[in-house]
Amino acid sequence: MTLTALSGRIALVTGGGRGIGKAISLALADAGCDVAVNYVSREADARATCEAVRAKGRRELPIRGDVSKSADVAALIAAVEAGLGPVDILVNNAGRVAFESIEQMSEASWNEIIQVNLLSVFLMTQAALPGMRARKWGRIINLTSVAAQAGSTMAVHYSAAKAGVIAATKSYARMLAKEGVTVNAISPALIATEMVASNPNVKPDMIPVGRFGRVEECGDVAVLLAGNPYITGQTIGVNGGLYLGS
């Protein structure tokens, strides 16, 4: 892979204003992509990320939209196409976790977590795919979680949603392999984000390598997956050795 392979490509990163999404947005800009940064409520973060993309000499577009709602998704894709061009690289990063015990979980919280973390992947993928298939080139990168692979004692609904992301990734990859569209997933664990920093129950010594992951390490993997046409259907663990399964 060479960085020039992505030069001029249009990337859309959902939840791209902060944390892992921001790191992926900036890494793709470094690789030559123009980047649309999606957000729901934290506009200032999205605009700051866009400023950083622009500082790298790439075009950018902050775009509001709830990716778990079909009407927002349609408007979002249309806005990106009008402002930057057709989406070549879709990064389904937006998501939310709720730490609830078995007793605390309700039907409403289950449905909400599934909608935000799994339905959003379906809606965004279905909206971006027609253009990718028509152009015979596309990259879809889904963010899942080690909770999908190892299970979670704090968020059954989140684990189930993220496991669904892995299954959807494999299925889309099989169906699209001959059409120039690859579909892969990144599975982080204990990356140094706001969520991890605010949880007193997680500590660096839980990770075999002895530290939390850096968001930039997820960004590096996203660039690899965007630039490599032979990797598809894979879930790449960025977890410091916490989970060693396939």
List the helices and strands and how they pair.
Elements: E1 10-13, H1 19-30, E2 34-39, H2 43-55, E3 60-64, H3 70-83, E4 89-92, H4 107-135, E5 138-143, H5 146-150, H6 156-176, E6 181-188, H7 194-197, H8 215-227, E7 235-238
Parallel strand pairs: 1-2, 1-4, 2-3, 4-5, 5-6, 6-7
Rg measurement, Å: 17 Å
Return residue spans where pLDDT drops below 50 for at least 5 consecutive residues: none
Net shape = globular
CATH H-tier superfamily? NAD(P)-binding Rossmann-like Domain
Overview of this protein structure:
With 246 residues, this protein is an alpha/beta fold. The protein has a single domain, classed as Rossmann fold. It contains 8 helices and 7 strands; from the N terminus they run βαβαβαβαβααβααβ. It has helices at 19-30, 43-55, 70-83, 107-135, 146-150, 156-176, 194-197, 215-227, and strands at residues 10-13, 34-39, 60-64, 89-92, 138-143, 181-188, 235-238. It has a 7-stranded parallel sheet with strand order 3-2-1-4-5-6-7, with helices on both faces. Helix 1 (19-30) packs parallel to helix 2 (43-55). The relative contact order is 0.15. The mean pLDDT is 93.
Main attributes of the structure:
246 residues, alpha/beta, Rossmann fold, seven-stranded parallel sheet, 8 helices, 7 strands, globular
Give a quick precis of the structure.
The chain is α/β, with parallel strands linked by helices and 246 residues long.
